[in-house]
Amino acid sequence: MQTTTAGSQIPCVTSDLLRPEDPPHGMTRGPRNYERSMLWTMRLPKALCCDTKTLSLLWQSSTRPGMPEKSYAKEFIADVRKADRCDWCWRDARKNRRGLCRHCNEIRKDLERLEKRTAEGTVNFILDWNLRVARREKEDCIAWGNIGRGILDRPVSGLDLEHWFCDLAKRLARDRKMHYGTANILGWTFTPEQRQVLAYLFWEIFGAEASHNRKGRATGRVSIEGVKS
Ligand SMILES: [Zn+2]
Q1: Taking a C-beta distance cutoff of 8 angstroms, is the pair 111, 141 a contact?
Q2: Cα of 210 from ligand 1 centre, angstroms
Q3: Residue 96 scores a pLDDT above 80
Q4: What predicted TM-score, i.e. pTM, was given to this entire model?
């Protein structure tokens, strides 16, 4: 047990896995201090809104017997780091001798074929168009790979998670604002390692989706560039 500045006693959360980040702005842990953060709950969906008593119970429930004391999130991240990944898109997929997954290798082959034809002097607007699309596809693969690497290389903030949740809500519920303004709550709820795990899982989902519509998006970008130029 620990005593807060407000004098009330709350259970001391010992597990790194279960301990959220300290609330910002000098607020200490404890029900009284969470009262000051109640303003945040007014911006949350109804399902996430609860009073101080409920929050206190939620806090206590994190120390109930049977809850894991070990940080499995850290192990999860360690395993993610060890995986053998595609050099471009960084997905954990079977890769060839060139270090690319099947999806990226197809784009590479297509790009090299188009570049070879261009180098041989075959110049026409269709070839030029296809070459630009293939280059954009390659850039998109590498960009998604860099996003994945960034999740493990840098701390994942509550705002990062909010963006992922907003993207998910937009795609599935057609409501981008469903989790708008929840960055602080997400930051306090999940430990830095748990935030990395969540962001990584989101990245896996959206990265797979990006691979399905990569050609269409690349074509769209080239179309916009064509209009601009
Ligand atoms: Zn790949």
Answers
A1: no
A2: 11
A3: yes
A4: 0.68
